[in-house]
Backbone:
């Protein structure tokens, strides 16, 4: 991909071997914790499927899942900041990782507000049940705005810089035949959401809040991210792969999984799937969280490997 995308500076006092070994250990821990989480969720799912009364699994799974998603979002944010620090001022990918880190920070805020503050507000902050429920509902609207559209805008802007770098070095390719299948499916889903938006807008009895309007741009942004992911996948194939390819391959997988998870959530909320299928959909969000955390970790591994080969 060129020296612009690989070689960069280390913060003062930090050796490449120290950071590289630390990130390698982090990657192993990411997979280990993910395996435990997936096994725990699978056990809860099997017990539910056979209608076994396992209170510990079924009652603790939602909270434990929220904690898992938050921990991996924080990890992705910290690793993205570390990536940003590896690039010198003026390098294109320094902007990429600043935007990605900012988007990751929005994802963390969104998860905290919607899963924790909003979820516990009625019981802790506002003693009155009616008041608590109102404020909790408002907070659960604020959370998705941060974790959804704001995060996606920043991530899309960051990936656009990467696409530009690949284009500059002549590795960018247009989507080929198989690539149009997920793009077409995403287009159909966005079109269906457009129809729902028209119906929703026509049924409004009073002006909607700005957060409601913002929530409707989530699906178009996912379509844009999916297009960027496919372009990056094509560029990765042209570049021959390698460690740097793992980074953008992880982000491409995370975006695809987010699209599938979002479609699954819509299907459950629309009544097309039974609400209990939400448990299956949760695993999609787990995999997306893992991929988002592995992306910056693979970038740092690529940087360290390039430095060891250089020196």
Residues:
């Amino acid at each position: 991909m060129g020296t612009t995308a690989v070689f960069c500076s280390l913060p003062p006092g930090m050796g490449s071997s120290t950071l590289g070994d630390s990130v390698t250990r982090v990657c192993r821990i990411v997979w280990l914790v993910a395996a435990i989480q997936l096994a725990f969720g699978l056990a809860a799912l099997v017990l539910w499927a056979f209608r076994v009364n396992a209170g510990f699994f079924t009652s603790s799974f939602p909270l434990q899942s929220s904690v898992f998603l938050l921990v991996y979002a924080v990890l992705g944010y910290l690793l993205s900041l570390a990536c940003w620090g590896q690039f010198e001022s003026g390098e294109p990918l320094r902007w990429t990782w600043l935007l990605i880190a900012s988007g990751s920070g929005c994802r963390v805020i969104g998860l905290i507000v919607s899963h924790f503050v909003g979820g516990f507000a009625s019981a802790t902050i506002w003693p009155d049940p009616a008041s608590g429920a109102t404020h909790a509902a408002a907070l659960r609207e604020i959370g998705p705005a941060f974790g959804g559209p704001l995060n996606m805008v920043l991530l899309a802007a960051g990936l656009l810089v990467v696409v530009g770098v690949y284009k500059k070095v002549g590795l960018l390719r247009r989507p080929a035949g198989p690539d149009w299948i997920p793009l077409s499916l995403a287009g159909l889903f966005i079109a269906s959401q457009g129809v729902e938006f028209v119906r929703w807008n026509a049924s409004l009895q009073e002006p909607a809040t700005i957060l409601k309007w913002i929530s409707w741009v989530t699906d178009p942004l996912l379509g844009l991210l999916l297009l960027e992911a496919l372009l990056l996948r094509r560029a990765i194939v042209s570049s021959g792969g390698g460690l740097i390819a793992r980074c953008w391959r992880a982000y491409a997988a995370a975006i695809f999984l987010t699209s599938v998870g979002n479609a699954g959530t819509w299907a459950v909320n629309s009544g097309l799937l039974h609400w209990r299928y939400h448990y299956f959909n949760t695993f999609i969000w787990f995999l997306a969280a893992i991929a988002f955390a592995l992306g910056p970790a693979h970038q740092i591994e690529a940087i360290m490997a390039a430095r060891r080969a250089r020196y």
